[in-house]
Amino acid sequence: MQISPAARAELAPGGKLRIGLNYGNFLLVLKDGPGGEPRGIAPDLGRELAKRVGVPLEFLRFDQAGKLADAVKDGKCDVGFLGAEPQRANEIAFTAAYLEIPVTFLVPAGSPIRSIADVDREGVRIAVADRSAYDLFLSRNLKKAQLVRAQGIDGSCQLFVDKKLDALAGLKPRLVSDAEKLPGSRILDGQVTGVQQAVGTPKARSAAAAYLSEFVADLHKSGLVKKIAAEHGVRGVVVR
Fold first, then answer.
1. Is 31 exposed, middle or buried (0-12, 13-18, 19+ CB in 10 A)?
2. With CB atoms 3.0 to 4.6 Å apart as the test, which of 38, 73, 82, 126 could cross-link to 43 if both were Cys?
């Protein structure tokens, strides 16, 4: 892929490519390696991007998607790997998704809720990670149920348990592991939405956005995302 001087300048205005990672998404960012280097799908794609752009790389770590979105919006990150949501797209230029993560609900033992359609009812309280992509989606689409927010994915699960809430919204692969720790709990069939994991850059950087879109299109053609996901043993995602 050829990169224009304008795209390189917008991607690395300070001479290096600052890439934001959401450590709250355990599917895309794993625990750091022995030398403290980030591991996972997003870090590996970030390294590939920096190699193609031809500039040094700096990873910036965030514990929640909302904080990463703020950093990209404000230009503190040149690129962020995070869910593309309409609310975020007002201020961040996103590529097409390179993978999708299904979202559904976990309900406790003995719950009368049998399906996703049963969730959006008066009196139903749902634990959710504050400002996650699926929090933004549910905030727009739920009519009757109440969202109860906590900081991060771990926090939402703890809130669900401590407050004895009616449902826990989350990424399906994570809910599978949560269900194993909560005897009798059930994951509802199907998905309420899918988080479209994409690459974002500040809205005003049109040349950078165009190059990133080409980059993701090339990822689709090459099969690199599927290869990296397999190398890290990541399951439960839909690779685009």
1. exposed
2. 38
Strand partners, 57: 17
pLDDT in tens, 139-193: 999 999 999 999 999 999 999 999 999 999 999 999 999 999 999 999 999 999 9
Residues carrying CATH 3.40.190.10, the chain: 5-99+196-239, 101-193
Q: Which two tokens stand for residue 180?
A: 């194993």
Answer CATH for 5-99+196-239 from 3.40.50.300, 3.40.190.10, 3.60.21.10, 3.40.50.80: 3.40.190.10
DSSP 184: T
Superfamily of domain 101-193 in the CATH hierarchy:
Periplasmic binding protein-like II (3.40.190.10)
Q: How far apart are CA 130 and CA 135, in angstroms?
A: 6
CA distance 240 to 58: 26
Per the CB < 8 A criterion, the answer to whether 185 and 106 are in contact is yes
- Mean pLDDT (the chain) is 97
If one counts every other C-beta atom within 10 angstroms of the C-beta of residue 214, the result is 16
Helix residue ranges per DSSP H, 36-167: 41-53, 65-73, 86-89, 133-141, 152-162
Q: What is the pTM of this model?
A: 0.92
CA–CA distance, 208 with 214 (Å, rounded to integer) = 10
Exposed e or buried b per residue across 109-137, where buried means at least 16 C-beta atoms within 10 angstroms of its C-beta: eebebeeeebbeeeebebbbbbbbbbbbb
**219 close to 97: Cβ distance less than 8 angstroms:** no
